[in-house]
Write a structure and sequence with these properties.
Length: 183
Amino acid sequence: MKLPAVPGISPVSLASVERTTAELHALMVRLRGPDAARDLGLEAAAVQSAEIAHEQRAGLLALVEHRDADPALLIAGIVPVDGPLDETAAADLGHFVADQTPGIREVSSARTGRGYPVVIVERIGLAGAQLQAVVLDPDRPRAAVFTLHSPGGRGWLEVAGLAGTLVAGVDLTPAEPRAEARR
């Protein structure tokens, strides 16, 4: 999966849980100010987020920030799926989620900039706002799943818009082998 660079979305390294935690915590402290470095709750949130990203074998963990919004976390990864992935699969997924998942505010379908079908699910509740975008790969039995979560929800449309820009530019074509690997 190849992703475009989007201003306001700061990815962190997924090399190790410790490195992910350190980078994510540093970004959170930068946003909240120097006094936040002593905030144990902020450190615990960074540790928990890093552990979840590594347990789920995420391909991306990033902090999404906008001057008019609370920061949000974005996690993404590729998951295997069964069956063909086309417009019908996207519609079926959208209907299933809307019918089976409590608290859903909106389910919609769209296409990315590269033409991939995507199902977008938004949930807003007491625990904040969450958006999931499932990008279906019609050429392979897999999907890219993006989850954006804002615990506070202030400025939700701004951070969701940034995440949408990232999702719209996703490229699911296989990466070219590096020159060393081809020799």
